[in-house]
Write a structure and sequence with these properties.
Layout (H helix, E strand, L loop, with lengths): L2 E2 L12 E3 L3 H4 L11 H14 L13 H10 L1 H8 L5 H22 L13 H6 L3 H5 L9 H8 L4 H30 L2 E2 L2 H9 L4 H10 L12 H22 L13 H8 L4 H26 L16 H15 L3 H5 L13 H4 L5 H8 L12 H25 L1 H4 L3 H7 L1 E3 L2 H4 L1
Antiparallel strand pairs: 1-3, 2-4
Length: about 425
């Protein structure tokens, strides 16, 4: 259980240099792609953010002076372009606006701002009782500014389809809000979570599920319902992105704007596993490696070969035939019903992804909750296998894009990203490390 404790940073004063895991090598099979609409979305989003006012009692700007000064160097438009390389200009602009607001909101909490960014009366109980995703977003001082554009887009959906998407997005917004509120309270009370507690909290701290839902709303990818293993695939992808960004955040040094040693994977590994900083980096790299291996295994299960479903020679694969084929193969090779039902399993040969680190695996109820609202709304005429392939590729783009952006943005390594990408070494000055 989480408990008040001294900051992990007090244990790390002797570690001045360390080498990051080779994240690019681990994801070398993932294509590197940049959206050609990057400049369009970046210029439009930055101009919009700089022009926005709070719309509260005062009429000041949404961003602080420091946030305005560093906006261009952070390169949120590039992040969106790398994570969604095939979206068109208007789609990319919405994603850029969203990612900018989420990252700024999260950064404010990590910096110890007086407010968590939600209305003063917002609590976990209030979040749980919310019935509308966009109304809940309205209670956030930053995210409320993207609500009008989301309302316009979602209003174009057929009523039933829009209702299902809102239900799914509500689940994601609730997860994000609860993660932010808990993070704020933990930092305020100087509480250091256990590793399983932190990994669960960190999973939604950057709104990953909300981002995936927006890909559906914007018709970039859609998540089909009733696909065994897709819940597991999604959780692994989200966790991988979270761990990667924590590796970058820690490497930015104690004065880095996104580093908080009581809530950072590397710092917590040094605390709970008594590792050096290099040992924690190696351990986190091992976690990413094993999670990617599991992701690749799941992708093979979720992507049956073409024309394998019916055997009719027609060249088509209906969703029923495809998943009937997949179920037959799973049965033939001895995979358990738990895997087919979507329950997360842990391999006995895993060295890093142990229950002591991750906590108990998600339950069948988690998978069922995940499935609610999954409609394939963006491409209703496509087969389940086609939708699944697009969904998987979208999450792989999310992973690869986050890694490449980490070396390009000045948020973590200032202007030394190319050096870190090439050699992996980070050198912290004494003044930055104490």
């Amino acid at each position: 259980m989480a408990s008040p404790a001294r900051s992990p940073s007090s244990m790390l004063t002797s570690n001045l240099s360390f080498q990051l895991p080779d994240l690019l090598a681990l994801t070398s099979s993932y294509p590197f792609r940049v959206n050609r609409n990057c400049k369009f979305a970046t210029d439009g989003s930055e101009g919009w953010l700089l022009s926005q006012n709070t719309s509260d009692d005062d009429d000041g700007p949404v961003l602080s002076q420091n946030e305005r000064e560093v906006l261009q160097s952070v390169k949120y438009g590039l992040l969106a372009s790398l994570c969604s390389p095939t979206s068109d200009g208007p789609q990319l602009r919405v994603l850029t606006d969203f990612l900018s607001l989420v990252f700024i909101s999260h950064g404010r909490i990590l910096e110890g701002k007086e407010s968590h960014g939600w209305k003063p009366w917002t609590s976990i109980v209030h979040v749980e009782s919310a019935q509308d995703a966009l109304e809940l977003n309205e209670t956030n001082v930053l995210l409320k500014h993207i609500v009008p554009s989301l309302q316009r887009i979602s209003s174009r959906l057929p009523e039933a389809q829009g209702s299902r998407w809102n239900k799914r997005f509500l689940r994601s917004v609730k997860a994000f809000a609860k993660a932010q509120l808990r993070l704020y309270e933990n930092i305020k009370s100087n509480t250091i979570p256990t590793l399983p507690e932190y990994i669960k909290l960190r999973r939604e701290a950057y709104g990953s599920s909300m981002f995936i839902d927006l890909l559906d709303l914007l018709e970039i990818s859609s998540r089909p319902s009733g696909v065994p293993g897709l819940h597991q695939f999604t959780l692994w992808a989200i966790d991988i992105v979270a761990w990667i960004l924590d590796i970058f955040s820690y490497a930015s040094g104690p004065t880095g704007p996104t580093r908080c040693d009581s809530h950072n994977l590397i710092a917590l590994l040094t605390t709970h596993k008594n590792l050096s900083v290099q040992g924690a980096m190696n351990y986190a790299g091992g976690m990413v490696k094993e999670a990617l291996e599991e992701l690749n295994r799941l992708e093979r299960e979720l992507s049956p070969p073409p024309n394998g479903g019916t055997g009719s020679g027609s060249g088509g694969t209906s969703s029923e035939g495809t998943w009937g084929w997949l179920g037959f193969v799973k049965s033939a090779v001895g995979l358990t019903g738990d895997v087919q039902a979507g329950r997360s399993t842990r391999r006995s040969d895993w060295k890093f992804l142990t229950d002591a680190v991750l906590g108990p695996p998600p339950t069948d109820e988690d998978a069922e909750d995940f499935d609610r609202g999954a409609t394939g709304s963006a491409s209703g005429t496509k087969s389940t296998s086609e939708q699944t392939a697009r969904y998987i590729q979208a999450l792989k783009d999310y992973i690869a894009g986050s890694i490449h952006w980490g070396y390009e943005t000045e948020l973590y390594f200032e202007q030394k990203g190319d050096e870190v990408r090439s050699f992996g070494w980070v050198f912290l000055a004494h003044s930055d490390h104490s």
